[in-house]
Design goal:
The structure is a homodimer.
Chain A (H helix, E strand, L loop, with lengths): L1 H5 L5 H5 L7 H19 L4 E2 L1 H8 L3 H9 L5 E2 L3 E3 H12 L5 E6 L3 H8 L1 H5 L2 E8 L8 E2 L2 E5 L3 H8 L3 E4 L3 H14 L3 E4 L12 E4 L2 H29 L1
Parallel strand pairs in A: 4-5, 4-8, 5-7, 8-9, 9-10
Antiparallel strand pairs in A: 1-3, 2-3, 6-7
Chain A binds a DNA duplex through helix 3, helix 5 and strand 2.
Chain lengths: 239, 239
DNA sequence: CGGCCTTTGTGAAGGAAGGCACAAAGCGAG
DNA sequence: CTCGCTTTGTGCCTTCCTTCACAAAGGCCG
């Protein structure tokens, strides 16, 4: 108690929860922790030690603790973290306590998968518009919403105050649609099209490249192959 | 010529092309460079300076040059890089000069999008099996192939010597299917299911989390919001 | 052939992230 | 109340990545 009262407003642990100085790498892991915490909560787990949570999230306990310490001091020494409290704090930091209206531009197979993806709705992302330039797709019902023509992009964005857009168009039209999203007021874009988008300052773009990851796997697989071959040759020489 | 002959086998620039000591961060960017190079090649560009290529790939020229220097010395000072040569070297390093048979497990909307994705075939990834546990999906034609029952997983993997598997199942069955892939001999897995997979040593897993990226965007968006609000308050105070 | 201009390749410095190890802090038993 | 056990939070060190700045190297022109 005495110590607590001695903790001034400039106490590092407290301040860290207010000012935002969270490393990029940590931000990228918070959603993983959040998912693990939700799973624990479903299993009626009340508190969890860093070791257990770290295993569930696929990271080392030290990294987990350091990450969580960026949010403030929400653990109890000798016990662990309260699952519900920690989940709420992470959600708050990530901005998931509010609803985010989102438009999806491009409703091919990928766009449909995204529109149906439960992980979006669970985290407060509400799809308020499905847009496609292809007349054949306009009017179709996807994930309970009707696909609207791309011409309505500006109207949908303005109507719902959308600031996050998802691009799932072919490569050819991605930059054009991106420009229109930005002009309409969108300031964060999740890009699934295989192009490098150029956007003005102040707009965040994150890219998900389906084939990039596969190419990285191929690199490592080839390496393993080479090692196996080398081992084989050495084995033959030894024999 | 004289200099070239003086370059021994342990010349650093040469060796780097042989021994593999490429930083992870660099490996992750090579596919981006490769895509940019292919685009340049299509536009009949013969040589490209680091500055231009860097802009096309969305990185800084210095980073690009350092990355490329890991592969060896394939640029010409005062001129730039030969587009075709460089593309070939990158493809070789990534292991894209060979064909990689791939199975896709889970043929929902996402699995279908992946099966149809041109970026796979272009890079030497050949989908040799579409597998799904849902009888309603088995027998459907997706991307020119018939969807086969999940029970045939082991047979397909063995038949084609598959070592890369793509998981696009619901969260619930991902670990089970992962275990079967590994048992059947797959040693690299691209996981789209929102779970942390556990695999034995020697197996590589890469995870693509569709909602993770959106959550990171929300974090930054919230920050921008906070800054805007703070600026607004300050502005009001000044007035 | 020689000088100039362009562009690469890379050492060195700066910064971010990861891992170790331990002190501080809480809980529960005695 | 005290002791001992458990687990967090964090300072320090190491490693990896990025950026800067410049020497070395090649082409081009006179």
């Amino acid at each position: 108690m005495t110590q607590d009262r001695n903790r001034g407003v400039d106490d590092p642990a407290r301040l860290r929860g207010i000012v935002r100085d969270i490393p990029q790498a940590t931000v990228a892991r918070l959603p993983v922790y959040l998912r693990a915490l939700h799973e624990l909560a479903e299993r009626r787990v009340g508190t969890v030690a860093s070791q257990v949570l770290a295993r569930a999230a696929g990271v080392s306990p030290a990294k987990l603790r350091k990450d969580l310490s960026c949010l403030g001091s929400y653990g109890t020494r000798g016990v662990g973290y309260d699952v519900a409290t920690l989940a709420e704090q992470i959600a708050r930091q990530l901005g998931l306590t509010q609803d985010w209206p989102v438009v999806i531009v491009g409703v091919g197979k990928l766009g449909q998968a995204l529109a149906n993806y439960a992980g979006f709705a669970d985290r407060g992302f509400r799809v308020v518009g499905l847009l496609d330039a292809d007349p054949a797709r306009v009017g179709q019902i996807v994930a309970g919403s009707v696909v609207r023509p791309a011409t309505e992009l500006e109207r949908v964005v303005a109507e719902h105050g959308v600031c996050i857009g998802v691009l799932a168009t072919p490569a050819g039209s991605a930059q054009r649609m991106c420009d229109r999203l930005v002009a309409a007021g969108v300031s964060s874009i999740l890009n699934f099209a295989p192009v490098v988008l150029s956007v003005p300052d102040g707009v965040d773009v994150r890219k998900v490249d389906l084939s990039l990851e596969l190419q990285i796997l191929a690199f490592h697989e080839q390496r393993k192959d080479a090692v196996r071959r080398a081992a084989g040759v050495l084995g033959a020489m030894r024999a």
